[in-house]
Design goal:
By secondary structure, this protein is an alpha+beta fold. The protein has 24 helices and 17 strands. Strands 5, 6, 7, 8, 9, 10, 11, 14 and 15 form a 9-stranded mixed β-sheet that branches. Helix 17 links the parallel strand 5 and strand 6. Helix 3 packs parallel to helix 4, helix 9 packs antiparallel against helix 11 and helix 21 crosses helix 22. The longest helix has 36 residues. It is extended and about 140 Å long.
């Protein structure tokens, strides 16, 4: 005990004031406070007994110092029997024995002459005994949580003290001791070691991936290709080979087989993709020319997934907010298409058919693909204008134009297919369009029938390579003859559309050409042809703030530089059907042919000349 007391004297704790400043109550300080309290209690008890014996009368309750026990009666002091003192195993037992000894000093019957106090006064005075001007009340901690002597000696040797972090309040920051710093340092070291191990594992994985990428992929031989025609491989094997070929083509200089050319890899890739996605070789080759091999796979994968169902709000009868609320009340899960349109809604799920709701029957909306919004938005019809839709059925774009015109002016809806005009007429009536005229003419003859339009919209018939997700038959039933026939028809229709517009219009003179195809033959090549045949028009901005610019050169073909103003849309990039939009501005009704200026039939200038001649 002597050696331990000496060691404690060497490591005397800080004064209680400094301990309170630091916010810590260590075990050594707690023991010192408890011993001081016990010593003060002994002194005050002895003083109380001496005062009671000397005075012979009770002291006033207000002047009596508070004690931890009730005031005993006056009694002769007798020497207490001393019990054999056993060496305590720890300071906790030593403190308990001291407190028991104090309680045993009092007589059994109590002090008769001591002043009587209530429990509340005793409780209040007992706390006042430990109050002072300099010291604050120290919260007593359970002795069972204090460390034993061996732990205390180790802490004293290390120079650290233990803090009672678990008794800190939520508003106070836990005190940091040397032991806490050591624990945190160990945790940080363990974390660094774990991060270093993970980094090593990632490096090893990257090295393995690089090593596997450097492996040369061997193309199947001609005999294997012939054998696969008789016994095709599994789709999973074909898919893995497609990925390997794409990996080689993306890093052809390092991963190529020296005995094989790039064309060999491309030929094998076409065969595998035709087998995997179900395209004919002609269409597969035409589509692969548009993209890189990696993006081509994304395009083909997007064509295997149906596009979201979208509807257009009929602003002549309702607002999009009201329509959305009405459909939500019916259990429809929907969301706006995007920021680029204020009338479109995407339908994710519906407990009832979207084409059979009361709102649909009342003409509050039109089931319409998001891509077909684009040509109408580019055309931008105004009120009191004369607008022509050369290929109007089934009426989605026609009714959209009429809604933008607010049922003013004149909307001419033409379609060459008489059977399709039934749906066109039905939608016009259902949506409440009152400014539309429906006619059945071949678009190539239309300028001779009627001309002088402020704006003309031509959504030309096409191969449908942008809507393969809706019509999978396009994969196999489109060949070179179809593209040759379609491009010839599109060139004739675009010239008729240009001739039908009036360049002298105060608000218009615009022509929009669009297709649901992504091939250059039906898009940029047709627009470039129109620019060369009709020098009285020019390309202008479409007004669409998204989409990819059109090609100005493609596989050795050079187009007019203004074709960069056109816009392309792809299913894998914009989550809508493949589409192409070009917007012309007609600057003159006359065409310069050699030394003469010719006015095409149907133009506004020709009509003015006819009216003037009739008056004369």
């Amino acid at each position: 005990m002597g050696g331990r007391n000496n060691k404690r004297r060497q490591h005397m704790p800080l004064p209680i004031e400094l301990e309170k400043v630091t916010g810590k109550v260590t075990k050594a300080v707690y023991d010192k406070i408890q011993h001081d309290q016990v010593r003060d209690l002994k002194k005050k008890t002895a003083a109380l007994k001496q005062a009671a014996t000397g005075s012979g009368r009770k002291r006033p309750a207000t002047a009596t110092p508070a004690t931890a026990t009730a005031a005993p009666k006056k009694q002769k002091q007798q020497p207490a029997k001393r019990k054999p003192i056993a060496k305590p195993e720890s300071e906790d037992e030593e403190e308990e024995s001291d407190s028991d000894g104090i309680k045993a000093d009092g007589p059994d019957g109590g002090w008769d002459n001591a002043p009587l106090e209530s429990d509340s006064e005793i409780a209040e005075d007992s706390f006042d005994e430990f109050d002072s001007d300099q010291d604050e009340v120290v919260t007593q901690q359970p002795l069972s949580l204090l460390s034993d002597d061996s732990d205390e000696e180790e802490e004293d040797e290390d120079g650290g003290v233990e803090s009672y972090d678990e008794y800190d309040t939520d508003g106070e920051e836990p005190a940091v001791t040397f032991r806490d710093m050591e624990k945190r340092s160990r945790k940080l070291d363990a974390k660094r070691a774990e991060d270093a191990e993970m980094a090593d594992m990632e490096i090893q994985a990257q090295d393995q991936a690089l090593a596997s990428e450097r492996e040369v992929f061997e193309l199947p031989s001609d005999e294997q290709v012939e054998a696969e025609k008789e016994a095709p491989l599994d789709l999973s094997q074909v898919q893995m080979r497609i990925q390997e070929i794409i990996r080689v083509l993306n890093n052809f200089a390092d991963l190529r087989d020296p005995s094989r050319s790039r064309n060999d890899y491309m030929d094998q890739l076409k065969r595998d993709m035709c087998f995997y996605y179900g395209y004919n070789e002609f269409l597969m080759e035409k589509l692969l020319q548009l993209f890189t091999v990696s993006e081509a796979v994304e395009f083909f994968e997007a064509n295997e997934v149906a596009r979201p169902v979208t509807i257009r709000t009929n602003t002549l009868k309702t607002r999009r907010r009201d329509l959305a609320q009405a459909l939500i009340n019916r259990g429809v899960n929907l969301d706006p298409i995007g920021k680029w349109t204020k009338v479109g809604l995407t339908i994710f799920d519906s407990p009832v058919p979207v084409g059979a709701t009361p709102e649909y029957m009342a003409g509050h909306y039109m089931i319409q693909a998001a891509s077909s919004f684009l040509p109408v938005m580019a055309l931008g019809p105004q009120e009191n204008e004369k607008v022509l839709d050369m290929s109007a059925a089934p009426g989605g774009k026609t009714t959209y134009c009429a809604a933008l015109m607010k049922n003013t002016g004149m909307m001419v809806a033409n379609d060459a297919n008489k059977e399709r005009e039934k749906a066109l007429v039905a939608n016009i009536h259902r949506l409440g369009i009152s400014n539309a005229i429906v006619c059945n003419y071949d678009g190539r003859e239309f300028p001779k029938v009627m001309g002088g339009f402020d704006r003309v919209l031509l959504d030309a018939p096409c191969s449908g390579t942008g809507v393969i997700s809706k019509d999978a038959s396009v994969k196999t039933n489109k060949g070179p003859e179809d593209f040759s026939m379609l491009t010839h028809l599109q060139k004739e229709l675009i010239l008729s559309a240009i001739d039908s517009a009036n360049a002298d219009s105060a608000t218009g003179g615009f022509i929009v050409y669009s297709t649901c195809s992504v091939t250059v033959d039906e898009d940029e090549a047709v627009v470039n042809y129109a620019l060369s045949k009709r020098p009285n028009v020019k390309l202008v901005e479409t007004g669409l703030d998204f989409g990819r610019p059109g090609f100005t050169s493609f596989r050795g073909q050079s187009f007019h530089h203004s074709l960069a103003l056109t816009r392309r849309f792809y299913p894998h990039a914009h989550n809508m059907d493949g589409f192409f939009v070009a917007k012309f501005k007609k600057i003159s009704n006359k065409i310069q042919v050699g030394d003469k200026q010719v006015v095409p039939a149907g133009s506004g200038a020709k009509l003015k000349q006819k009216k003037k001649s009739n008056k004369d």
